[in-house]
Amino acid sequence: MNRTILYVVFIAAVLGLGLLIGTNNIPGEWYRSLAKPAFNPPDWIFAPVWSILYVMIGVVGARMFLDHRRSAAMRLWLAQMILNFLWSPLFFGMQDIASALIVIIALVIAVAGFVVASWQRDRISALLFLPYLAWVAFATALNSAILLMN
Q: Domain 3-149, what architecture?
C-alpha cells in the first residue's frame, strides 16, 4: 500500500472514530449540572483540541504501522486507542466518573509508555505524543477533580 494512502487511512480512521464517539457521547444536562473545578476549560475547546490530537495520533499510528509494526510501541499505540475511545462512553454515556478515571489513568500510563518505548526508534512519533500526554494528564486532573467534587 502506498505510504501516503496509509497515512490518510490512519488519520481518517482515528479522527473519524473519535468524532463518531464524541458525537454519540455529547456532554448534556448531566455534565452541565456537575460541580467543576476553576481550571475547567470552556466546552468549545474540547472538539478542536481533540481533532488536532486525533490527526497527530493518526500520523503516529501510520508511522508505527509502516516502520515498527511488531514493536512494543505499536502495541502501546493500540492500547491507548482502545482506552481513549472507551473514556467518553464511560464518562458521558454511562455517567460513570469513577470508572472513567480508572480508564484515563491507564491511558496516561499507555501514552507515557508509548513515548518511552518509541523515543529511541522514532523520536518524531514520541515528540508528537508529548502534547497528547500533556492533554491527557490535564484531563486526568479534571476527571479527578470532578469525581472529588461530586
A: Up-down Bundle (1.20)
